[in-house]
Amino acid sequence: MSVKTPTTSSIKTVNPATNQVEKQFDVMSEEHIEHILASAHGAFQQWKKTPFGRRATLLHNVAAIMRDRRDELGKLCTLEMGKLHAEGVGEVQLCADIFDYYADHGEQFLADKPLETAIGSAFLSYQPIGVLLSVQPWNFPFYQITRSAAPNIMAGNTMVLKHASNVPQCAAIMEQIFIDAGAPIGIYTNLFVPGAKVSQLIGDTRIKGVSLTGSEAAGASFAAEAGKHVKKSTLELGGSDAFVVLADADLDLAVKTAALGRLWNAGQVCVSPKRIIVLAEVAEAFISKARAIYENIRIGDPLDPSTQLAPLSSEKAAQEIIQQVETAVKQGAKLVYGGHRVDRPGAYMEPTILTGIKPGTAAYSEEIFGPVLCVYAVKDEAEAIALANDTVFGLGGTVFGTDTAKAVAVARQIDTGMVYINHTTGIAAELPFGGTKNSGYGREQSLAGIHEFVNEKLIRITTPDAPY
Ligand code: NAP
To answer: Which family does it belong to (predicted)?
Structure first.
């Protein structure tokens, strides 16, 4: 893809630590897109017949390249969306682990599954369906792609990827990594197209399945378009995870886990602890301990290893989060700490603590995609569970407590796709990821994820003399 001096394209690298435009990319022409779709479709005809062992070799090669280049790829994340370099390197290592995991386990996940039947025998055969369109957000530029690509490519599908417009270099380098790893042309291809072009792609008959990770608004229009064309879709959307602190929790550990967890990726994580729910009798202590942590957070250059809080992903994002905090305060919330821009160039804002958020206000119901810790005080466990569930979102969540059986009992009552005990919602190659309610449907990773875009075909064998 040619790199050009500024045009009107929104596909560009803008360093959030400086707000300077670094590189701009052309939107692909209709002919270019047609060529990519034809290649992906053509490649599928071979890839679906390629033995698991050869698919696994490709994924292991991708993993090895990512591991070797983790420092450089981590820096690219920092350049394009601002995350701490150490977080970027960690993300790339995780991606390598995910590629290895699906290379090692994909065949087993996709092995024929015998079914019990009264007559003859029957089994399910898991067969790839074709070219998948994957639309991904910027917040984990490599991980989001990997979660979608590794299981699905191992399953024998091919993929075209539309990444967020602000991480084009990460998008382009991922395609190059596949090529360098030995992928036949068309197995994995990057598309430089704006969000507005996606509906046209969904309608293309060569695209057989579609997935989007991003905002609720984008997900709703994406799924509507997929429905119109009877295409299988999965959605990984926003979240407003509750972090429920039970009476028997180690308070210091809970505060540290929640407060620092909220700053991971500058708070721009779909499964960040966005609503902290504590019992009223410890709320004051919790808030003052969280404040003490935030007062000592080092904000600065995301490439500096001593920095703890990086800029937000863009100037627009910083302005939007500050606006959300200001609206919360206007609607009656108390600003305990932060809430302002940092006096330096770039999309920086202070770590922030809000309390006293009331039902019916914007901050109560909206996702805040930045370093804002919202603390709610409740009278008992029942109220904590009710508050945790009083949201349209259902992505992740945390229960903090020393009595594991009790914490698990509370976790069962939280209406989300994932609940972690004594940890903020995390990620591991072998675990499923996904939500319920307005956080989307379907799963990525694990057995559930690798089965999303395969045809679970029934094959039944009966003998010629079978009665029916
Ligand atoms: P976004 O605006 O929805 O963008 C996500 C992706 O969708 C981008 O590639 C974007 O392209 C594209 N897009 C935007 N509008 C579209 C449309 N109408 N049709 C098709 N594609 C469209 O998301 P964001 O606000 O940047 O990202 C943050 C959101 O993602 C948060 O809500 C966060 O919680 C959620 N998220 C969820 C998960 C999860 O696994 N559940 C993980 C990470 C993030 P352009 O960049 O070109 O607009």
So the answer is: Belongs to the aldehyde dehydrogenase family.
Identify whether residues 55 and 82 lie together within a single domain: yes
Please tell me which residue in 95, 170, 270, 374 is annotated as part of the active site.
270
**Cα angle 221-227-232, degrees, rounded to a multiple of 5:** 110
Q: Which atom of ligand 1 is nearest to the CA of 439?
A: 41
Say whether both 211 and 251 belong to one domain.
no
> What's the gap in Å between 392 CA and the centre of ligand 1?
17
Are residues 222 and 347 part of one domain?
no
Please name the residue whose Cα sits nearest to atom 14 of ligand 1. Answer: 195
| Residue-wise pLDDT tens digits, 421-468 | 999 988 899 999 999 999 999 999 999 999 999 999 999 998 777 766
Q: Is residue 281 among the annotated active site residues?
A: no
Q: Domain range for residue 60?
A: 12-237
Alpha carbon distance 431, 449 (integer Å) = 9
Whether 313 is in the pocket of ligand 1, judged by its Cβ within 6 Å, is no
Catalytic residue (choose from 80, 236, 381, 452): 236
230 and 254 part of one domain: no
In a domain, 38, yes or no: yes
Instruction: Give this prediction's pTM.
Output: 0.96
- In a domain, residue 26? The reply is yes
What is the count of structural domains for the chain?
2
Does ligand 1 have an atom closer than 6 angstroms to the CB of 241? no
Nearest Cα residue to 393 out of 286, 257, 258, 236: 236
Mapping DSSP onto H, E and C, the string for 426-455 reads CCCCCCCECCEECCEECCECHHHHHCCCEE
Residue 361 belongs to a domain: yes
Residues 278-301 have pLDDT tens digits of: 999 999 999 999 999 999 999 999
Question: Whose CA is closest to 192, among 444, 440, 4?
Answer: 4
* CATH number for 327: 3.40.309.10
Pocket flag, ligand 1, residue 221 (CB < 6 Å): yes
